[in-house]
Amino acid sequence: MVTQITKGIKISVSTSFEGTYFKNYKIHYAFSYQITIENQSKDSVQLTSRHWEIYDALNNIEIVDGEGVVGKKPVIKPGEKHIYNSGCLLASPIGAMKGHYDMINFTSTKSFQVVIPTFKLSAPFALN
């Protein structure tokens, strides 16, 4: 598990290889990940958007920007967590993801970014 804290918001990521998948006559490698967002600050926050950089071993980079996470813009009170699952397809059995969440602090009404630490995606058979 990979963990990082930014401005009192702790991001923890765990990953899993889900298998291979054929799409457009090419093999893809399916990965899932679970992200826990824990508010260790004294203020309530809301996640408003996300930015992802997805890398594979073939030097392909995919940028994904969007509102919220899996259709939600969670409000996370002090001491609470928001956990969600998602996934991605890579053209290679090894890759990585990193990014950030845009959040709003309800006390100060200011926007801020929370770093999503780089986490590796690897199919077990690709490592020896």
Automatic annotation (TrEMBL):
Q: Name one process (GO BP) from the record.
A: error-free translesion synthesis
One Pfam match: DUF525
InterPro entries (UniProt xref): ApaG_domain, ApaG_sf
Return the SUPFAM superfamilies for the record: ApaG-like (SSF110069)
The ApaG domain sits at 3-128
Instruction: Specify the protein name.
Output: ApaG protein
